[in-house]
Amino acid sequence: MLFVPGHSVAPTEDGKGATQATSNNYDGFEGLSWAPDGRILFSATRKGLQNIWLTDSEGKQKTQLTDNAGLNTWPSMSPDGGTIVFVSTRDGKQRIWRMDASGNHVQRLTDGQRDTNPILSPDGQWIFYLSLRAQGVSELLKISIDGGSPVSLLNDGLPGSPAISPDGKTLAFTYRKPALGKLKLALLPTDLSAPLKVLETTDVPRRSLVRWTKDGQGIAYVKVGGNISNIWVQPIDGGPPRQLTSFDSELIYNFAFSRDGRLAMSRGHQVNDVVLISSVK
């Protein structure tokens, strides 16, 4: 059984001085991102229902944005603060949707079977996302914020959740080829002006989740040692990875950097229950 006791916020990228913002199970586990004004978007499960919430960084003022229509996860807000894109199963399939910042005017944007992990470009005009086709097969695509036909960026190997650089020119993600191969970090220009670049690193990220550092010079990811995880950074120039946070307990399941260098995290630990099932005659 997994236990994620809410999310916490640190005033700096290294996680020092982190304080608890929410204390509910699974908060931020499937979606945690910053709004331009410093508030935090996150997914939350309440009474078996998964919705998108918006809160201040201290967790004092929370607003529920989606209203119990399917499972709602992975929110990302436009730079002007006016639009949120997210994943929802409200029509029976896992697809990308958009809504305004108040949770109104909901509109479906994609028509895949398992579309997930949307991220908005810095200019707010494009959505980059994954479409899971089959076991061991995924495709990286982009689509206009207004919808339309998606554009395939990568359908080779197994790309992970995309993160876009601060200048909007490069996507970073984990990458496997073949599907059971070693997990690596990869870079791809958003305009496909250069081929896929795979970074050689000895570290294996957790949950295929990566983020760009504020200066755009490194890719941050979660590294696990025992039952403790920390955030590490791989420089895009090929230098050795460096440890960013120094936690001595718990696991990091999701994280995001703000524009001004703060760090939001979904952290917790795992609890395994042993259950004895006896046959009944």
Short description:
With 281 residues, this protein is an all-beta fold.
3D structure, described in words:
It is a single chain. By secondary structure, this protein is mainly beta. 0% of the residues lie in helices and 48% in strands. It contains no helices and 26 strands. The chain has strands spanning 2-3, 7-10, 19-20, 32-34, 40-46, 49-55, 62-64, 72-77, 83-88, 95-100, 107-108, 115-120, 126-134, 137-144, 147-154, 158-159, 163-164, 170-176, 184-189, 197-199, 210-212, 218-225, 228-235, 242-243, 251-257, 263-270.
Low-confidence stretches: none
In total, the number of strands is 26
Per CATH, the class reads Mainly Beta
Helix/strand/pairing category: mainly beta
Whole-number tally of structural domains: 1
Q: What is the CATH topology descriptor?
A: Neuraminidase
Could you say what the CATH architecture is?
Answer: 6 Propeller
The CATH homologous superfamily name equals: TolB, C-terminal domain
Overall radius of gyration: 18 Å
Keywords:
5-stranded antiparallel beta sheet, mainly beta, 0% helix, 48% strand, globular, Neuraminidase
